[in-house]
Amino acid sequence: MDGYALGAGTALWLGVLTAISPCPLTTNIAAVSFIGRQYSHPLRVTLAGLAYVAGRVATYVALGVLLAGGLLSAPSLSTFLQRWMNAILGPILILVGMLLLGLLAFEAGSGSARGARLKEWAAQGGVPGAFLLGALFALSFCPISGALFLGSLVPLAVTHNAPVLFPLLYGVGTGAPAALFALLIAMGAKSVGSLFDKVGRAEGVARKVTGAVFIAAGVFFTLRYTFELF
Fold this sequence. Notes:
It is built from eight helices and no strands. By secondary structure, it is mainly alpha-helical.
């Protein structure tokens, strides 16, 4: 597997890991469940769920183009990043890995009032409202999702000069669990709660493994590109 394909796979995995993290997972389930209750026809539930996912993907692509594309569009800055990104990436990966392992903690802001208003918009806006809900919820970064997007995905997109594709894959990854839950709701599945619990347990293991990998990769990048020990 070449470096670009590995980077693309990492971007997709970061999106999945973001989606199953406690804060985004709770938000996604609440949003999709709320959207699903607005319709009685399975097709409408599915379309609204997909619109919610599309809204999230569109937001992450826009942010990726704005942040990674903006960094790459400045010739002098792009040259600097191409030269030093591997050295910069080492400490960033270590910090993100420590956050994933719970060795660092940040306070998350409350978005309950904002979430209530967005739900009202979705109820009144149909499928377009679901798209808007997904787009706006994607901006509600929790500490872990913010670290994964800003601290891992954006540097990854800059390193591989992929300000559109990698955020797109990240967005697809964040939307996949929400799309699955929307499909289960549309099918009238009664096991959504059980699946939610299983995903929550799997997230803990996946987050710790990813955190350990990030720290190991960060140490490797630091030793090789900062201290040039090998």
